[in-house]
Fold:
Amino acid sequence: ATFDLKAACPGSCEFGIVVDASSSRRRLTEYELKYTLDVTGNDVAAAAVAASSKKSGWLVDVRGTLEDDGVVSGASVYVVGETVEHVGVVLDMQCWWRPQHPIALDGVDMVLNPSAHAVWCLKVPACYNNGFGIMTTAPENGRYDVAYSFAAKTNGLMQQLVDATTKQDNVVVKAIGEPVDDAAGDVNERNFEFPMFEATMLVMEGETITHTGFLVDLFCWDKPGHRAIDGAILDTEPEKHTLHCLRDIEKCRKNGYAVLKELDDGSYDIAYRFDEAGNQKVLDWVDTTTPKERNDVQVTVVGTLAAGEDGLYLADASVGDPGSNPGPAPMPNPGSMPVAPAPAPAPTVAMACTSDDPAFENQLALSGNLALYWTVEMSGEEDAEFYPAMRARLVKTGSGYGAIGFSKDGLMYPADAIIGQPGATPEAYENTGYERPKKTDAFGLSDVAVTKADDGTTAWDFTRTFDSGSVPIDVGGTAWGRLIWAEGSGGLGYHGSNRGALSLDFTTCDSSVKKLRPVNSKAIKTHGILMIAAWAYLSPFA
Structure:
């Protein structure tokens, strides 16, 4: 343990692992050479030694394949107790272990294009609750693999990021922590097939947050009742917290800072804490702010979204006066990040749509509960003018209805819809407004059927010609269309947030997702008030 490995091996070396070989009767601990490393392992060990600040005490974690001659091949080598930073795309392990591997629930090939994995898929309960992993930083022979699976606490950090992110995909994360042999907490056993990683912080690379709020020091915030040293109750009256308390009391300076957010009930809670670099930026700001007794201390902060054990953070944040632009946080080094596909005008994204049902050529997961299977038919039993047509199956997990529609612009109307309700064959509908759709004969469905499996899954079969209805699909070598979808429990009713839209080429399965903007709750209330007032005023004249 006292061996100066760096001094003994300044250049190329071969490495071995020694273990305790002493008996209980010996006073001194004796060691023997137990394992040696192959060429790959020696290169990895040399890099670990070079990157470490240690001179002695080389306790290491080595993982690889043990050969008959005691050589560990393909080993990973980590210096125990030293912080490791790994940057990669995060995936949910549920999608990795699917029978359709490497195709995730959202249709993305996790080996060839993991950065396209959708955030909505990470939020599916079965994915959200079965642990996360992080991919290799760079592909090998064009293919990515899982570098680590996350320990239980780190899964909790990742859930925070998934809940907070505004990204649609490209979930590139910098994990700061260390590989561990085992970890406390509930972890799906199958995830132990990969090295486990315990992070102290996860940073969502490329997601910059700007926030304005009251500044508090964590020493005062953590006091009983959030009563600061200066008497301010920080969760109800943070405007009374003084700059003097924030700046001039040593305990307040040393314990870090946070910026608050206002809750719906008018009280306040921590929005973001700061990492070491951000706390220094706060100190720089408070030390240059006057006057000394000033209260109502608010700041605008700009940093990278991150998660730690005690909540959300802003990594490497800049700090300035309210309403100012303190400048964006430094961007991560592009060379340390996985290369993600550059954004391109829709539609350009090639989806992995290989069907797991041999009856259909294509498959696309629309949500965690709804999937569409289809084949484009150019001829068949119908009259020639019926083709090209889409022979399809809409599959819903659990009870309730499922629906797809064909829209001119990805909005709910005007659109043609095909809706399957519990126990009923699918039917043609037309959406003419934000209201319950109406049945229509503007386009026809053939070969309709409904089946329900023992596990509760419902499948609706149908064939629809492209050249019909109020929104026909233009076919010119390919078959582009705007596809909308929705699902709900029970019979046909309001779908809530269970809906989406995308542009889709039904022939090649190229697609691009269309982001739907939810209706603001205040707008709904205002609409209701105005509607009641209008009826109350106009009804007598009717």
Summary: Confidence is low (pLDDT under 50) at residues 329-350, 476-480, 512-519. DSSP finds eleven helices and 27 strands in the chain.
